[in-house]
Write a structure and sequence with these properties.
Elements (H helix, E strand, L loop, with lengths): L2 E2 L15 E9 L2 H11 L8 E5 L6 H13 L1 H5 L10 E4 L6 E5 L8 H4 L2 H7 L1 E5 L13 E7 L7 E8 L3 H12 L1
Parallel strand pairs: 3-6, 3-7, 5-6
Antiparallel strand pairs: 1-2, 2-8, 4-5, 7-8
Helix pairs in contact: 1-2
The chain binds adenosine-5'-diphosphate and magnesium ion.
Family: Belongs to the TsaE family.
Protein name: tRNA threonylcarbamoyladenosine biosynthesis protein TsaE
Subcellular location: Cytoplasm
Length: 182
């Protein structure tokens, strides 16, 4: 049930570009629920898909990304080290589904760095998971979707989850279909 973005949301999180819609997802009750969401989405992701991961520090962006990368890597992923890209800004992995790029834009200075890091090009041909897309808002790629995770007041582990996507996004359609059967 997509609908125009309903405010208020956390004012520290950047609003999506104009024309994007928001779909409230079932709350993620604990870290295991966030892992289950990553496992549900992994099979429908293809080269050229970008998921922006938005949320405050500790919201679970890296936890989701790490689980998704492991799921895409198959049995090899269980042993793989998936370091945080906080300082390197990007980390790349090989998988049967194609290359996976994990990025964290928190420390990125100039949006021009996207090109220098090769992330711009990677978005065309890899599966890209990008934390802190707020740094490039509102210039979010029109082929991307955004998973927003927000802490729930009074609950230690529960996270509110919202899918933000351009109207008619094929990637959003695939993800919502995958969640419906998960
Ligand atoms: N529902 C949840 N979803 C994701 N992580 C959760 C959840 N509940 C608790 N956590 C914990 O919160 C922490 C989130 O850290 P991290 O994924 O690094 O956050 P971020 O990358 O958003 O800053 C992890 O230690 C994780 O185990
Ligand atoms: Mg992180």
């Amino acid at each position: 049930m997509s609908q125009p973005l309903v405010l208020p949301h956390d004012p520290d999180l950047a609003a999506p570009p104009e024309g994007w819609t928001a779909t409230a997802l079932p709350a993620l009750e604990d870290a295991g629920a966030t892992e289950a969401l990553a496992h549900a989405l992994a099979p429908v992701l293809r080269a050229g898909d970008t998921i922006l991961l938005q949320g405050q520090l500790g919201a679970g962006k890296s936890h989701f990304a790490r689980t998704l990368i492991r799921a895409l890597m198959g049995p090899e992923g269980e042993r793989a080290e998936i370091p945080s890209p906080t300082f390197t800004l990007v980390q790349a992995y090989d998988s049967a589904a194609g290359e996976i790029w994990h990025a964290d834009l928190y420390r990125m200075g100039d949006p021009q760095e996207l090109v220098e890091l090769g992330l711009d090009a990677a978005m065309e041909e890899a599966i890209c998971l990008i934390e802190w897309p707020d740094r490039i808002a509102p210039d979010w790629p029109q082929e991307a979707i955004c998973l927003r995770l927000e802490r729930v007041p009074g609950a230690a582990e529960a996270r509110g989850a919202t899918l933000l996507a351009p109207a008619g996004s094929d990637l959003a359609r695939r993800c919502l279909a995958a969640m419906a059967v998960a």
